Amino acid sequence: MAVRRKNDEKRDYLQKKRQESQLGGGNRRIEAQHKKGKLTARERIASLLDDGTFEELDSFALHQSTEFGLDKQRFLGDSVVTGFGTIDGRRIFVYAQDFTVVGGSLSLVAAQKITKIMDLALNTGAPMIGLIDSGGARIQEGIDSLSGYSDIFLRNVRASGVIPQISAVFGPAAGGASYSPALTDFVLMVRGTGQLYITGPDVIKAVTGEEITHEDLGGAESHASKSGVAHFAAESEEECMDQIRRLLSFLPQNNMEESPRGQGADDQDSTDQTLADLIPDNPNQAYDMTEIIRRIVDGGEFFQVHELYARNVVVGYARMDGRAVGIVANQPEVMAGVLDINASAKAARFVRFCDAFNIPIVTLIDVPGFMPGSSQEHSGIIRHGAKLIYAYAEATVPKISVLTRKAYGGAYIVMSSKGLKGDINYAWPTGELAVMGAGGAVNIIHRNQLKDADDPEQLRAELVKEYEDRLINPYVAAGRGLIDDVIDPSETRQKVIRALAMLDNKREVLPPKKHGSIPL
Known about the structure:
The chain is of the alpha/beta class. The chain contains 20 helices and 17 strands. It folds into three domains: 15-248, 2-enoyl-CoA Hydratase, Chain A, domain 1, CATH 3.90.226.10; 275-431 and 473-502, 2-enoyl-CoA Hydratase, Chain A, domain 1 (Alpha-Beta Complex); 437-472, no CATH class. It has helices spanning 6-22, 27-35, 41-48, 108-124, 143-159, 179-183, 201-208, 214-218, 220-227, 237-248, 289-296, 341-356, 374-378, 381-394, 409-414, 438-445, 447-452, 456-472, 474-479, 492-502; strands spanning 55-57, 80-87, 90-97, 128-132, 165-169, 172-174, 186-190, 195-197, 232-234, 303-305, 313-320, 323-330, 361-367, 399-408, 424-427, 432-434, 485-486.
């Protein structure tokens, strides 16, 4: 009979402790989590990562607090699970807050675990993903938990523009807890369970008298469509994980690398004769710009970002001959594609992210101008519109644009114009570039003639035709080098792909500075 060694006992003890840490807050709390339709922290990580690749760190960490009965609520690993693994074979770092342990509240040791993993992600140049399900700061720890949040926020800012940062919200994130997701590059929320707000419904009612539900105040739908805090809203946790994986497929590991290349398309030189049919003869008639996007990108695959927010501008990722590209496009189907405050901020943020991570930007243009009105002016349309100007002017990645119909006034300038260092600017024959539309211009320039004319409508039609022929067709801009080529719509895909290939080795250096002063 084999004699049991002391080392064997120690190994058995290790296995026992590991099993204990895997249970988080215990079976009863795990069952409660499942009854809410929610996965546990470890189940979420397992669902997100490649099978068998997760390496957990700090699974034996314990908080050291004794105030208000916390000494009787010690769980191995405390309220967050941290570690690293792979998604599609690519290294990522992850933390998942564990709601089964003291409601996932942030303790000092939980913050230390999170910041440790964030430091590793930054130092090794790999994406950081946070899976959020937390009651906020652990009140019993007082200033220690608040200090922990500041340590996390600092690292969010330090990592910004260096590694991609993604937050997925599966449960509550109230008060200070909501700011870390807001500092990351992309926020995903699950409908029905994910909630973000600074102040909860109870406090709002006590202070202002307003009654509102948790979901209406800070749910996925509210933040995806109204506030713009959330970039994606998912119907389930599984769908949210799929969105994260799909998003990462377009992103590089860090700002020194390029995005993964997909397989080059066999149809890169093909033409689509039906593209021209998508532009209505009536210049005031709407059409769906996403249909054009899907016709020119690889496999018709377009992954929209902020799909429900500021829908008058469209942003998202696609591939062209295997290259990941960021797409920015006006959407004539919504508000005629006009640029307002929300659309300007949405597009500017997307452009800056693409520029930070070496993702070329393809811009499709059909914009009548900036949104007029006292509400927009008083809410700062000038300042917010300037953000988009700033973003395009600052971006040094390849910038290619295609004018499909119209670009008037300041909105022409802001949409990746040649003056903002657009590399290649194409126009379809239907393109119009001017200070304003021909009708409005004629009303101003020839107002006295029209007032005195015997047949003002006939004269107006003649003057509009003359203005269009002389000033706003794409050949005028092409004659001045502001448009590089007027192309047949059917050639759009091959022209953009060839321009992207030509710009593969583009290098542009900005003047030395600490950072610019974007009009926030």
